[in-house]
Design brief:
mainly beta; five-stranded mixed sheet; 2 helices
């Protein structure tokens, strides 16, 4: 969810973070139907770092540039196969489907925040070593209680 705190407007779509080099490099390139917002967390607040290209984009997108205080420094609808740079240095970039700017009623100076959508991690089965004589199978060794992540106690009946 994206929130324009200045105007109390909310966009309820999914939000993902581009907080690694690879995620920032990939961005929204080759995404057929952009239905989520992508928040880029840049390593430094500069105009050069915040420049974007629209090469290999399959649709136009809305782009909002924010400074380190999350204030809007620039915004526009970006068209395919063009280059864009913000008017002022930016630390964050929000890219998303056309309509986000209108839904949030964005203007320069507005305070924008976001709440990333939960991404479901894939469950991976893991074998865990248990202390000698301790088992989760039915038997006579009692019950296991977890006191904390690193501590397991067994209690006899």
């Amino acid at each position: 969810m994206l929130i324009n705190e200045t105007k109390e407007r909310t966009w309820h779509g999914p939000v993902k973070l581009a907080d690694s080099f690879f995620k920032r490099f990939r961005g929204l390139m080759l995404v057929r139907h952009v239905n989520h917002a992508l928040v880029f967390i840049l390593p430094a607040e500069t105009k050069a770092n915040a420049s974007i290209h629209m090469f290999f984009m399959l649709s136009d997108i809305d782009v909002i540039w924010l400074d380190s205080t999350r204030r809007v420094v620039d915004f526009k609808t970006a068209r395919k196969w063009r280059l864009y740079a913000p008017r002022k240095p930016a630390k964050y970039i929000i890219e998303g489907p056309v309509g986000i700017i209108k839904a949030l009623d964005v203007e320069e100076g507005d305070l924008i925040s976001w709440s990333p959508s939960e991404e479901k991690e894939r469950a991976v089965p893991v074998k865990v070593s248990l202390p000698d004589g301790f088992s989760f199978d039915k038997g006579t060794n009692g019950m296991a209680f977890t006191e904390s992540v690193g501590e397991v106690k067994a209690r006899e009946h």
